[in-house]
Design a protein that fits this description.
alpha/beta, five-stranded parallel β-sheet, 12 helices, 12 strands, globular, binds N-(3-carboxypropanoyl)-L-norvaline
């Protein structure tokens, strides 16, 4: 694997999930693979889980790791070609990328949406330059539009925690024994990227398309997205996934609830790209609480973290035994290790 950006880069998800379980069985069995190989992790934005879990995954594989926080001590980087560099940026990405690449074998990059231009963000202007000018395999550690290491960890967590099939789950109101996964928008005071919901949708749609046996009696997946009007996600990620604007209706019978805030994707009104469309005080009904969880099928709760309590989710729901946020975060080490392992294998 030379690029890890989209679900397709991983190929057959059954194989990938089996590989994740093999990593869990003994995560130190490939120490030879990473010997004398170096992973460079570059962060243009803050990180806790991505930084630690990816570093741990690389160490599990016997790799050396270099972490660079671009904003803490590196030269400020210019990313636009053609500008006269008389401002605060001392170095151009076009020199920095090949230099950084010369010290490593694999590169991971975190660079969030900048919300200056929808086109630049959705064309992945920064990550494209790393792919083009580094000559190294590049994995996305949350880019402007995707967060695939998170979505892979989410899929692993869902597969591990799906309700065990039993005869009473089949047919009837549960449809064909489908596993119901609901992704809900929730309020937040700041404008957040769409990377996490884009990838989660992309991976759930792929899991449904590949008929992963996640439901009862080996049934598939019923994926529903719920959000206020105006927050429609880009069709390249949601494909034909069902959107239900009534949050309570969407939650009915859910087995998993995935909460996340995102700013306006600018699909219907490009001029609103990256905006918070309503004052969050008027949207607090969308905060996931016992009220919505009561109509689910005793759903498990997922969130990528960091999460703002009592904005996205109430204390009691995130602290309940049905909250999987900690095992979900722990699976970030596993998803990263599968990806790094595949990249090492194809060096
Ligand atoms: C990021 C996001 O894409 O939503 C990273 C999630 C993995 N989240 C934030 O930036 C949260 C910032 C905040 O102040 O709550």
């Amino acid at each position: 694997m030379r690029i890890f950006q989209h679900v397709q880069d991983l190929g057959d998800l059954r194989v990938a999930l089996a590989e994740a379980q093999e990593v869990k069985r003994d995560r130190y069995q490939w120490q030879h693979l990473g010997k004398n190989k170096t992973a460079l992790l570059i962060f243009f934005n803050n990180s806790l889980r991505t930084r630690l879990s990816t570093q741990k995954a690389a160490m599990n594989l016997g790799m050396n790791v270099i972490v660079l926080d671009v904003n803490q001590g590196a030269w400020k980087l210019e990313t636009e070609r053609g500008v006269i560099m008389d401002g605060d940026k001392s170095e151009h990405l076009l020199e920095a990328i090949p230099v950084m690449a010369s010290y490593c074998d694999l590169i991971g990059v975190r660079s969030f949406a900048r919300f200056e231009s929808r086109k630049d963000d959705y064309e992945e202007k920064i990550l494209r330059q790393f792919i083009e000018y580094s000559g190294r395999p590049v994995f996305f550690m949350e880019s402007a539009t995707v967060h695939p290491l998170q979505a892979f960890a989410d899929l692993i967590t869902i597969a591990e925690n799906r309700p065990t099939p039993n005869p009473s789950r089949e047919g009837g109101e549960r449809g064909e024994g489908l596993l119901k996964v609901v992704m809900t928008w929730a309020p937040h005071p700041k404008a957040l990227p769409q990377a996490v919901p884009n990838s989660f949708a992309e991976w759930m749609v792929a899991a449904a398309e590949q008929s992963l046996p996640l439901g009862g009696a080996e049934g598939g997946l019923d994926f529903v997205i719920t959000h206020p009007e105006g927050y429609e996600l880009d069709p390249q990620f949601v494909k034909g996934a069902r959107v239900e604007y009534d949050q309570m209706k969407a939650f009915e019978g859910a087995d998993f609830v995935y909460a996340k805030n995102w700013s306006c994707p600018g699909v219907t009104r490009p001029e609103d790209y990256g905006k918070v469309l309503h004052d969050y005080h008027s949207m607090m009904d969308w905060c996931v609480s016992k009220r919505q969880m009561a109509v689910t099928n005793d759903a498990a709760f997922l969130h990528c973290l960091p999460v703002r309590r009592n904005m996205i989710v109430t204390d009691d729901v995130i602290e309940s035994p049905r909250s999987l946020v900690i095992p979900e975060a722990a699976n970030r080490e596993i998803s990263a290790q599968v990806v790094l392992k595949r990249m090492l294998e194809s060096l």
